[in-house]
Amino acid sequence: xxxxxxxxxxxxxxxxxxxxxxxxxxxxxxxxxxxxxxxxxxxxxxxxxxxxxxxxxxxxxxxxxxxxxxxxxxxxxxxxxxxxxxxxxxxxxxxxxxxxxxxxxxxxxxxxxxxxxxxxxxxxxxxxxxxxxxxxxxxxxxxxxxxxxxxxxxxxxxxxxxxxxxxxxxxxxxxxxxxxxxxxxxxxxxxxxxxxxxxxxxxxxxxxxxxxxxxxxxxxxxxxxxxxxxxxxxxxxxxxxxxxxxxxxxxxxxxxxxxxxxxxxxxxxxxxxxxxxxxxxxxxxxxxxxxxxxxxxxxxxxxxxxxxxxxxxxxxxxxxxxxxxxxxxxxxxxxxxxxxxxxxxxxxxxxxxxxxxxxxxxxxxxxxxxxxxxxxxxxxxxxxxxxxxxxxxxxxxxxxxxxxxxxxxxxxxxxxx
Length: 417
Fold this sequence. Notes:
There is one protein chain. This protein is of the alpha/beta class. Helices cover 32% and strands 26% of the residues. The chain contains 13 helices and 14 strands. Strands 1, 2, 3, 4, 5, 6, 7, 8 and 9 form a 9-stranded mixed sheet that branches. Strands 10, 11, 12, 13 and 14 form a 5-stranded mixed sheet that branches. Strand 12 (287-291) and strand 13 (298-311) form a beta hairpin. The longest helix is centred in the C-terminal third of the chain and has 30 residues, at 322-351.
């Protein structure tokens, strides 16, 4: 009886240990944290792997003092999956995509019809996460990865992780993932991807800080990588770009905005030579009504915005003067609507498709999906009458209750009394 119990115990332990037969230690795996894709020769794709060294930046510093934080290798292969195997002819560790969060695509490949074939084939790999960020570089992805050497972040995966948080804070680039890319492959909508650059460029300063796109930002020193604006895709192929300002308002014209607030500067209505800095907060959904009954579609958009006035360099009294406040609100609404109309016009005439996801509202006006397909929203969007209105209200004027001139005027008035 005792022998039987011992055999049963040993047999149960053997069953539990079978899950460890294929285990790999940390130092046996090569974790790809950034992948670059470029158009190669003869229908090939140049795949670049930036492989993190897990020992650098960890508690095991003693054995990694002279090792680099990452290694970068490039292969020319038919697709991404075959690059994993050929990489082991150079890399001694097992290639893993389990920590891959960022995919950099060269603009030449993004503008070719071959790009979608590459991404569709790669989606079959279970290790390739659908929430990986998709970034388009205005150069070869290989050059972007090699040139991007941030000074504050030694480990590359941390750099992109922190940058993703900043993208959500500023709204200067869209929230761009593989999931959204595959969701918006239809001809009735556009997909916006993050636009980036490490190319040296000549500086041309503009009036507003968000009217640039990657490769145009005036800055001295700092990291060479710039991420600003959007790469616009239609049916899986890049067809153009948007600036940071155009990207912000394109996102606000959607029903839901992942970026709920950002800071921007606009023209002071009473002293046009100055700018006013405001925080735009969108805490409610954009109201969108689409009428598809007539020959031309009609779209009415109302965007509710809360404003926090942060800076008034002209020292104009907008705080206590209600008439000035009305002029400020009217001017800002007009400026917002003017920028939005330009983005809509660019989408209708240049891109010829809808980046605002209005097709979802148009689809709701039909009883069946075949009826919606027969309507052809993309065609009607190009001729649609679009009415945009921003409904703004000022929440605060910052921490200081009164601007200097307003405070002085009140003191003088009290002294006279």
